[in-house]
Amino acid sequence: MNAEILCVGTELLHGDIVNTNAQYISKKLAEIAIDVHYQSVVGDNPGRIKKGFDIGFSRADIVICTGGLGPTQDDITKEALAEYFNVEMVYDENSYEHVKEMYSRFRKDFPKNNMRQAYFPKGSIILNNANGTANACILKGEDSEGNIKIGILLPGPPKEMEPLMDNEVIPYLKQFSNQVVYGEKLVVVNIGESAAEEMILDIIENQTNPTIAPYASAGKVIFRITAKADSKEKCMELIEPVKEELISRFGKNNAYVTETGKVEDKTAELLIEKNITIATAESCTGGMVASRLISYPGISKVFMEGFVTYSNEAKMNTLQVKRETLERFGAVSEETAKEMAYGAAQAAGTDISVSTTGVAGPDGGTEEKPVGLVYICVYYKGKFNVLKIKNTGSREIIRDRAATSALDLVRSSIEGNGQ
């Protein structure tokens, strides 16, 4: 079966609220091998909501709708679903008691218009919403041609929608799918998106199961390898040879698997596994490298200290970068990056350190040192590993890519030393 996600709310169309519901629902459906072919957003307009159901059911077996279950007159998703299936709205005593109980819990008077939340399309399976007044529902029926259609109505607030999706909707929908979907993320660095795709184009053009989907992120390309099978174990068996072939083509130093697709997670795992302590010294990235590492649980075992030395004075006073080095080579140079990394390791007493210094822009570049030029250095076991990169884009893009490159250089420096 396939599904369409219909999210109701004028605030979504205006950009006041980010539509995280569609992303969450799509991921959950993918896990049980129900494909999502379309996602739609419609404002709080009765005619457009009804049309949204008509269009959704014309091209999908399942329509999952979020929003429009409140007590006001523009909350009409239940009525729209009832109209599609040509059934009447009926009163549900348990839902009425639920709304009253929730209001008593909030210590508020029960408004009369909240009675609307006790009515549902006839034949609905009603889902109790433990986190809000609006109960959800599932309605199974047929279209005009006798095809089975399933409408699922969920509340709009994510804190209410997500538990219902996990605990009620997914178990219900599992009866319509006898497969599971499992995927792994392969991170590719040092190779651009177009070049990486071209290197495996023959595999992509002939793919069936598993499938490969590339998408670019800051300083890396992620290939999601996804398989469908009767079990997760079978999916993993299907993925393994494809994964190994991709790593072989990209090179082991450029490609590796992470569950999250984040370079920092791979680096943090390696630091913790090997018990290698680290310090960071940042100029143009302004603490981004340290922040990404610190986001990984358990990193406190190995992350000792982070230095943000933006000015020349800070580089000299905190990291002991020589004045002569700055005057002769400049703050953005291989020499300064080396002294920053060495100074951080000495100041924090760590096994490894990484530094970044560059021109993030939009101003400040020269012909010799243009905007986007960044030097990164890792100091480890008495050796310096320096990377010079030239990025384009906005200030934030340049900083983001530099942080990614710095984190990956830590990884490759450790693995290159046979640790």
UniProtKB/TrEMBL annotation:
InterPro entries: CinA, CinA-like_C, CinA_C, CinA_KH, Competence-induced_CinA, MoaB/Mog-like_dom_sf, MoaB/Mog_dom. Pfam families: CinA, CinA_KH, MoCF_biosynth. It comes from the Bacteria. The gene is cinA. Residues 4-176 form the MoaB/Mog domain. PANTHER family: NICOTINAMIDE-NUCLEOTIDE AMIDOHYDROLASE PNCC, NMN AMIDOHYDROLASE-LIKE PROTEIN YFAY. SUPFAM superfamilies: CinA-like, Molybdenum cofactor biosynthesis proteins. This is Putative competence-damage inducible protein. CDD domains: cinA (cd00885). Coiled coil: none annotated. The lineage of its organism: Bacteria, Bacillati, Bacillota, Tissierellia, Sedimentibacter. Belongs to the CinA family.
